[in-house]
């Protein structure tokens, strides 16, 4: 059986400011760096065959810090399928303004929910096909929620019912 450990990146500046980061690179805060290190400590002793990360810096830096903590010396693959949902014109906007507009779907450049679900389904199939039995994935809250919804066989429209993965937390997938 293959196990995928999905880790949400550490806290980033957009999280603190209650903004929608989306595809914008938002640096990790001091707490975010600490969370990455703590997650690495929690995974110490788990032999990871491969680390895959969203290409966004907040995930990549989290992956690098975890790799250092667990003694992983292999490649960290950057996988574009794992990036967060594109919020278009609502990227880097205050959540209380952005989320209602995103939910209404009336945002220039917004990745549709259908396209987002399709991409996360592709990401899930990609992870399942990767070599290795223990894969560590570092990515984003929204991406993981949609991926988990698809993994559980539910309609993508129910994705907001999936519990949110907090910064630095781990969720396991078994294939």
CATH topology: Rossmann fold
Name the CATH superfamily classification: Phosphoglycerate mutase-like
Biggest beta-sheet profile: 5 strands, mixed
CATH C-level category:
Alpha Beta
Notes on the structure:
The protein has about 180 residues and is an alpha/beta fold. The protein has one domain (about 5-175): Rossmann fold. It has six helices and five strands, in the order E-H-H-E-H-E-H-H-E-H-E. It has helices spanning about 15, 30-40, 55-70, 95-105, 115-130, 140-150, and strands at about 5-10, 50-55, 75-80, 135-140, 170-175. The protein has a five-stranded mixed beta sheet, with helices on both faces. Strand 2, helix 3 (about 55-70) and strand 3 form a beta-alpha-beta unit. It starts with a strand and ends with a strand. The model has no long low-confidence stretch (mean pLDDT about 95).
Brief overview:
Helix content is 39%, strand content 14%.
Topology:
Layout: E1 3-8, H1 13-16, H2 30-42, E2 50-53, H3 57-70, E3 76-78, H4 95-104, H5 113-129, E4 134-139, H6 141-151, E5 170-174
Parallel strand pairs: 1-4, 2-3, 2-4
Antiparallel strand pairs: 1-5
Helix pairs in contact: 2-3, 5-6
What attributes does this structure have?
alpha/beta; 175 residues; globular; 39% helix
């Amino acid at each position: 059986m293959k196990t995928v450990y999905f880790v949400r990146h550490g806290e980033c500046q957009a999280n603190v400011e209650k903004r929608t980061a989306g595809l914008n690179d938002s640096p990790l805060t001091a707490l975010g760096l600490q969370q990455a290190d703590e997650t690495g400590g929690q995974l110490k002793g788990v032999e990871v065959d491969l680390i895959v990360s969203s290409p966004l810096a907040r995930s990549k830096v989290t992956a690098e810090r975890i790799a250092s903590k667990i003694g992983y010396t292999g490649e960290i693959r950057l996988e574009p399928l794992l990036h967060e949902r594109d919020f278009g014109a609502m990227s880097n906007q205050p959540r209380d303004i952005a989320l209602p507009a995103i939910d209404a779907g009336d945002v220039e450049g917004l990745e549709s929910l259908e396209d987002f679900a399709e991409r996360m389904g592709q990401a899930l199939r990609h992870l399942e096909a990767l070599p290795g039995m223990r894969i560590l994935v570092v990515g984003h809250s929204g991406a993981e929620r949609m991926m988990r919804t698809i993994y559980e066989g539910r309609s993508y429209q129910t994705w907001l019912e999936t519990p949110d993965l907090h910064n630095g937390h781990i969720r396991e997938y078994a294939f």
